[in-house]
Amino acid sequence: MLSLSTAPVAIVFRRDITMSYVVAIVAHPDFEPLTPLTERVHVWLAETSANRTRAQAYWRVHPQKSIEQGITTFKVGASDTAEQMVISALGPVDLHHGEHAHAPPWDALEIYGAAPTPSLRKALTDFGINDVDPIPGGFRASRPAGRRLGLTPPR
User: Fold this and answer.
1) pLDDT for 19
2) Contacts of 101 (CB under 8 A, 6+ apart)
């Protein structure tokens, strides 16, 4: 009989397993399905009057903070387009959920309230995103499977 101290140990590493980490960016000015979304992912929410009210209600019920679920609001201008809102959120999202802040770093964004315009696609490409697929209310932007690192775009 082998004791635990003398038993051989096999360690198997698999490189083909990747964990997905998704963050949502909401550019919709009055995003009603906020709570169900926060149960799946961390949400970056454009801070409009209606969204701020929803975020405050959520924070009262869920006072604990989590980088993987919950809500972070970000400032937007009254005349900002949805595209501008999303583009302005990309850097902070990468800073807080990218390779220097989270393991694994984010590898997909669910974007609500905005369309994948040419300017927005260009900005997403700067963060290593090439794949864009429609989802209800927006689109999902993903990095290719071989590129699961957070990136700060070149300046």
Assistant:
1) 61
2) 67, 95, 150
Quote the CA–CA distance of 125 and 76 in Å, as a whole number: 22
Report how far residue 111's alpha carbon sits from residue 120's, in angstroms, rounded to the nearest whole number: 11
Kindly report the pTM of this predicted structure. 0.82
As to burial, measured by CB atoms within 10 angstroms (0-12 exposed, 13-18 middle, 19+ buried), residue 2 is: exposed
Burial 67-92 (b: 16+ CB within 10 A, else e): eeebbbbbebeeebebbbbbbbbbee
Per-residue CA distances from 146 to 28, 42, 130, 143, 150 (Å)? 31, 23, 12, 8, 12
Q: Cβ neighbours of residue 33 under 8 Å, at least 6 residues apart? A: 137
Distances (CA, A) of 59 to 45, 53, 70, 113: 13, 10, 8, 22
Give the strand order in the sheet containing 131-135: 70-74, 42-46, 22-26, 108-112, 138-142, 131-135
The β-bridge relationship of strands 42-46 and 131-135 is unpaired
pLDDT single digits (tens) 54-112: 999 999 999 887 777 899 999 999 999 999 999 999 999 999 998 888 888 899 999 99
Type of residue numbered 145? A
